[in-house]
């Protein structure tokens, strides 16, 4: 019968056998332990043009998004936060073709600095991760917990909707009559399970959804010449990602900052994978309530 016990929590900053470089190496071996997804190591101790070295540069192989990661044993402090933001700013200016996110990893994210980071969140994409260490005999186990996640920005700015309204012909020209009709078919599916009343709202950068004149963009459509891009607003989960992968949907990549799954659909998908698409749309609809 296995014994269940409460492990001893320890402070790494006071442990002479543990250094930031050791923690850095451990994360570099398996970036997934941070809980930010299946990331890969792009660089370590990355030299910055003006001064200093970025602890870790991680990248999402699907979306190509980059994460500038700084590690600190003990509490967060002013220099740690400033350094993290400076490195993020440097990298995004050097490589503007990528989406970038700053990540702070520390043993203790203090209330004061939690609030300070919160002020930046939204204007600066930043994530704070608390690192807890536990002793198991002669070994040490690490647990990483996101205590301040990046603010999920809406993929649609409601003010923009008012100013950037277009019409159906605009999207037929950008896409085709056939790909716009694909949006019609998905709208019919939505009205089937939602009780009806939804209509397509034609905007400059997307086709959204509205009911009684009020936007509810749990799904967004972008007709193209040969396909329809569908964005479904849902928190990321392995279950949903598994359904998309197992059913061989054309996955463009999950955008964590906006909280949307992006799929490229064709007519065969609407015929052969209608039930799966309906299931995903229902989940997004329920999540929007």
UniProtKB/TrEMBL annotation:
InterPro entries found in the cross-reference section: tRNA_endonuc-like_dom_sf (IPR011856)
Domain of life: Bacteria
GO terms assigned for molecular function: nucleic acid binding
UniProt name for this protein: DUF5655 domain-containing protein
Natural source organism: Candidatus Niyogibacteria bacterium RIFCSPLOWO2_01_FULL_45_48
């Amino acid at each position: 019968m296995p014994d269940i016990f409460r492990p001893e929590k320890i402070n790494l900053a006071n442990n002479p056998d543990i250094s930031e470089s050791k923690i850095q190496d451990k994360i570099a071996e398996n970036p997934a332990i941070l809980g930010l997804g299946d990331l890969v190591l792009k660089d370590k101790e990355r030299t910055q043009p003006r001064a200093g070295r970025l602890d870790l540069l991680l990248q999402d192989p699907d979306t190509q998004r980059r994460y500038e990661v700084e590690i600190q044993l003990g509490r967060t402090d002013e220099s740690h936060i400033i350094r993290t933001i400076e490195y993020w700013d440097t990298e995004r200016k050097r490589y503007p073709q990528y989406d970038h996110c700053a990540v702070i990893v520390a043993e203790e994210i203090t209330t004061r600095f939690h609030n300070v980071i919160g002020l930046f969140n939204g204007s600066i994409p930043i994530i704070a991760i608390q690192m807890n260490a536990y002793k198991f005999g002669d070994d040490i186990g690490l647990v990483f917990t996101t205590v301040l996640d990046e603010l999920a920005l809406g993929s649609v700015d409601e003010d923009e909707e008012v100013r950037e309204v277009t019409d159906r012909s605009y999207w037929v020209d950008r896409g085709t009559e056939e790909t716009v009709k694909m949006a019609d078919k998905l709208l019919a599916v939505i009205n089937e399970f939602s009780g009806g009343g939804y209509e397509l709202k034609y905007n400059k950068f997307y086709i959204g959804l509205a009911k009684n004149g009020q936007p509810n963009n749990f799904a967004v459509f972008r007709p193209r010449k040969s396909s329809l891009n569908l964005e479904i607003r849902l928190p990321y989960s392995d279950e949903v990602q598994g359904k998309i992968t197992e059913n061989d949907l054309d996955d463009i990549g999950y955008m964590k900052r906006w909280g949307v799954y992006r799929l490229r659909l064709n007519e065969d998908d609407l015929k052969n994978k209608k039930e799966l698409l309906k299931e995903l749309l229902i989940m997004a609809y329920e999540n929007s309530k």
